[in-house]
Amino acid sequence: MPVTSLPSAAVKQYLQDLQQRIVSALQQADGKEFLADEWQRPEGGGGISRIIENGNLFERGGVGFSHVTGSNLPPSAAANRPGIAGRQWEAMGVSLVLHPHNPYVPTVHMNVRFFIATADGQEPIWWFGGGMDLTPYYGFEEDAQHFHRTCRDALQPFGSGLHARYKTWCDEYFYLKHRKEPRGVGGIFFDDLNEGGFEHCFALQRSVGDHFLDAYLPIVARRRDIAFGQRERDFQTYRRGRYVEFNLVFDRGTLFGLQSGGRTESILMSMPPVVTWRYDWQPEPGSPEARLHSDFLIHRDWL
User: Fold this and answer.
1) pLDDT per residue over 26-81, tens digit each?
2) Residues 144, 277: Cα–Cα separation, whole Å
3) Intra-chain end-to-end CA distance of the chain, in Å
4) Could you read off the pLDDT of 157-194 as tens digits, one per residue?
5) Is 67 annotated as a binding residue?
6) How far apart are CA 11 and CA 280, in angstroms?
7) Which is it for the CA torsion 157, 111, 42, 47, positive or negative?
8) What interactions and quaternary structure are annotated (predicted)?
9) 22-28 — which CB contacts under 8 Å span 24+ positions?
């Protein structure tokens, strides 16, 4: 049987272009330029991290592209696929997290990635993954509805039931089991995608990546000029602690990066700059902070 060759170079080109398009739009929204940090990985590959700190809109944010290679898969990648053990592998993707100054502007995460494992004389094993999710500190129904509507639009050309499936996957994935609460209001998440062939899966990934700015920037425009004080700031830094807990304990991308010997600065660029933890704190009943818990940090159909 002939061995199939996959056009991974086309995926890499798309991801590099996606990073540049997103950074250009975010720089225009913020008014400050993202720094470019190009790096090489000793074990193979490298990437470029685009970082903003103390901007006009974003307190901290990163939009990273990476393309790394290796021969020994970390446990986070090989656990569910014993057939890829011993193969050469490549992983590439664009991952971003944005932490705004204003507590009324939500934190957002987006990731699109491609993985391929090869061995001489054998068919490559490959899959796509990714998604996006929204983490507000003060909830607005129209924002959650807009974000989920845009996620639905990204997936609509690929099957009417796909959005519901990937929304549920996101709700279940971005969940802090030890807290018994979601990280935010969700979005979409998918992984291990290879159904329907390479071109179909690649097109789906492109649609998700291309819809990110439409999903997020209108929310930013609505909320960025709302006045806030120390109370809102304190709640924002408290809720950011949940973000840190999820990324360090559960996130597959973080675990893969650290276990595979990835570049720590780029892997942890998703960390918020200022975070606080409080012992057994509960919001005042009836407050906007309490409403985040009761009305937004729940699994619900936003459409």
Assistant:
1) 999 999 999 999 999 888 899 999 999 999 999 999 999 999 988 876 655 655 66
2) 26
3) 47
4) 999 899 999 999 999 999 999 999 999 999 999 999 99
5) no
6) 46
7) positive
8) Homodimer.
9) 22/63, 22/94, 22/96, 22/212, 22/213, 23/50, 23/63, 25/213, 25/217, 26/52, 26/58, 26/61, 26/63, 26/98, 27/52
Question: Residue 203 is which amino acid?
Answer: A
Question: CA 207 → CA 4, 153, 175, 276, distances in Å?
Answer: 25, 9, 25, 36
**pTM (2 d.p.):** 0.92
Q: What is the dihedral of CA 233, 234, 237, 242, to 10 degrees?
A: -130
Q: Is 67 a catalytic residue?
A: no
**299 assigned binding-site residue:** no
Tell me which of 67, 101, 109, 146 is the catalytic residue: 109
Residue 187 assigned to a binding site: no
Give the list of residues 6+ apart from residue 211 with CB closer than 8 angstroms, or none: 150, 151, 153, 154
